[in-house]
Amino acid sequence: MQYIKATEQNIQQIVQLVQDTIRTVYPKYYPKEVVDFFCEFHCAANIRKDIVDGRVGILVVDGVIVGTGCYKDNHITRVYVAPQYQGQGYGSYIMQCLENEIGLHYDKVNLDASLPASHLYESRGYETIKHEKWPVENGVVLVYEVMEKSLPNVTTDISYDGRCFVPLMNTENGEVDGNTLFRYHQKGNLLWAEYSGGDILKGHLIGTVASNGELDFYYQHVNEQQQLRVGKCHSIPHVMEDGKIELSEEWQWLNGDKSAGASRLQEI
User: Fold this and answer.
1) Residue 256's pLDDT band (boundaries 50, 70, 90)?
2) Where is 260: in which H helix or E strand?
3) Of the candidates 110, 128, 150, which is a domain's last residue?
4) Residue in 215, 217, 223 with CA at minimum distance from that of residue 177
5) Where are the alpha helices (DSSP H) in 29-165?
6) pLDDT, tens digit, 9 for 90 and up, residues 73-94
7) 158 belongs to a structural domain
8) What is the CATH number of the domain that holds 204?
9) In the chain, is it the N or the C terminus that has fewer CB atoms within a 10 Å radius of its CB?
10) What is the mean pLDDT of the chain?
11) Whether 136 and 216 share a structural domain
C-alpha cells in the first residue's frame, strides 16, 4: 500500500473512481439533483487542474488505485475510496496522509463534509464550525457542514532526520540485510526514508514518529528478482551510550505470503 502523488496519466482512473463512488453511494443520502451536482463538480477538468497543480494523491494497493485525496492550502477538497474497497481503513489512511502534509505548514485543517463522509471526519476529531447551503437544480438545496480540526504541534524525543541505519538482524522471511542502507528524514512527526543495497534495488518508506520516538510506517521496495514488496512496520528505538540508536522492529508483509517478522537496525 502506498499513497503517492497523482500524475496526468492517472486522470481517467481517478475520474472513474470518483464518479463511480458518487453514483453508487450518494443516492442513498441525496436526491438526484445533488448527486448530479457532485458529479459535475468533480469532473475531469477540475480533477485534471488539481493534478497539474500537484494537489492530488492516489492510494495504490497491489497495483490498483483504490482511493484518492486532494487538498489546497489547509482545506481538504476531495477524498474518495472506491465502493468495493470501503470499510478497510483506506479512507482513514488517506486522511492521515493529507493531515500530515497540511500539518507541515498549518496548525488547523478544514473541509466541507458530505453526509456519507461526516462520520469518518467526526471519528478523526473534526468538529462542525458552521452549516452551509448551496442551491442546485429544481429548487433543491444542498446542506453541508464545514468542519475543522486542530493539528498538534508535534515534537518528538528523537529526531531521525539525517540518520542512517543498517540491519543487524532480520528473520528469514525478510529481505533486507547488513548490506542494506537506510537514510532517514523527518519533519515534525512525518518520517520518510530511502533504502537500497543487498537484495534491494530501491526502496522507500513513509510514516510517523510518536512523541516517544516510536515509528509506524509503510515500506515498499523492488528486489533483485524484480518483485515489488510492500509491508508495514512498528519500530521501537533504544538510545545507546554513544548516543546512537538501535531500532527493534516488528513488521508484516502486505503482499506475497503476508507473513510477519522481526528485525534490528543500528545507526552508523
Assistant:
1) very high
2) strand 260-267
3) 150
4) 223
5) 32-41, 44-52, 90-102, 118-123
6) 999 999 999 999 999 999 999 9
7) no
8) 2.40.128.30
9) C
10) 94
11) no
